[in-house]
């Protein structure tokens, strides 16, 4: 019995369109219908930890997009040479290398961001979305498809954490991307009108609440139920 | 073929070498930029003890460097408060003293840098003395800088940083709200004994009447204790220097 990865049987068509319907689905599926955070409930740890403010969240999102896309590409390119018995370690080595690269680049060019995100950049290694996509997709599919798949999953992750961060920063610190929105609003209505910020939003509990609300709204709209 | 041990070992060796070369190459290329960023960050921390975080954030890297050069002078002292200009044949400068490395040595052998905050371009018009701090928090190292006014007793400001304290709990030592609690506190009691400033257990009490106590951080008592012993330790290591400055000022005042 062979334990080697079997490549999915895709009929040989004369050059599939660069963004055919099937490939578009690779990107759009993880955005809502198969979202890594709200449906698969992966990558929750960093979604709770880094989302107090928009700026670090954006950096985190970009880092995750880079790591997932690149690791999907590399693993997909090597998929026929990777020995099955050590494939997890090989995936881990590739992901860890990419994460270290991101961390080193941040340390050189955005030191404040590097300090603020601290361990969470390193923890992208353990983000289940990354390894999940490698195991589930990149090991059995061609490089271009894998890149699209990784990009889709990473985007699905990114828009959720950015949405969480938007509400947490707005309600917790009264600002968006560091711009003090609440102060402006207070300025319009005069000095007596003051919008209060909620300390709960700054703590991880706030992220749980926002995430729960997003999942609620999403499932009401799509009618998704867990079996 | 792919399942043979020889294949697996060869594959692993090649992968390790390739990834290792990639990482060490990156580290080599980015190293100088990273050291520059770290030096800038250190300057920001030192300045953070005397000017507010918002002001520093508003500055560009060039402005931080310029401000630092025109406002900070520095010296290095030993535990007896004597100035040190060279160690083991090499010249020492305060900016290059690695506090973390010195922390591992016995207290008597360490180098103690002092950063002197003065009026723009005039090193004689001293406004405060900034002393580094280093110690252990709950999970990892904590460090910072404390600014003492020229009476060598009143705390002008403090910056605190950490390597791995819990976000939302111990990591709050980096917040300006927590650091503001130290401003105006005193490190010597009435009999001239060094008592430093102690962060208390629990949060939300008013310690404005007590010059040696500050409000604590709820849920981060061990980090708070770490900050306390760090302050006490480093201020006692600098005590000789502090006393010498104190007495020279007393002499100046007597004339």
What would a concise description of this structure say?
The complex is a heterodimer of chains A (227) and B (255). Chain A is 64% helix and 0% strand.
Low-confidence stretches of chain A are none
Which shape of chain B, going by the Cα principal axes?
globular
pLDDT < 50 stretches of chain B: none
Largest sheet of chain A: none
Question: What is the strand tally of chain B?
Answer: 9
Note the run of SSEs of chain A as H and E: HHHHHHHHHHH
User: Kindly, what is the distance between the CA atoms of the first and last residues of chain A, rounded to a whole number of angstroms?
Assistant: 32 Å
Radius of gyration of chain A: 20 Å
Overall pLDDT of chain B:
86
Number of domains of chain B: 1
State the domain count of chain A. Answer: 1
The secondary structure category of chain B is: alpha+beta
How helix-rich are the residues of chain A, as a percent range? 55-70%
Percentage beta strand of chain A: under 5%
Provide structural commentary.
The complex is a heterodimer of chains A (227) and B (255). In chain A, helix 1 (21-28) runs parallel beside helix 8. Chain A has one domain (27-220). Chain A is globular. The mean pLDDT of chain A is 83. Chain A has helices at 21-28, 44-49, 54-78, 87-109, 111-117, 119-122, 128-136, 143-173, 181-189, 199-202, 204-222. With 227 residues, chain A is an all-alpha fold. Chain A contains 11 helices and no strands. Chain B is built from 7 helices and 9 strands; from the N terminus they run αααβββαββββαββαα. In chain B, 40% of the residues lie in helices and 19% in strands. Chain B has helices at 5-48, 53-57, 61-71, 99-103, 176-180, 221-237, 239-254, and strands at residues 72-77, 86-87, 90-91, 112-118, 126-136, 141-149, 155-162, 198-199, 213-214. A 5-stranded antiparallel beta sheet of chain B has the order 1-4-5-6-7. The longest helix of chain B has 44 residues, at 5-48. Chain B is globular and about 80 Å long. Chain B has one domain. With 255 residues, chain B is α+β, with helices and mostly antiparallel strands. At the A-B interface, helix 4 and helix 5 of A face helix 1 of B.
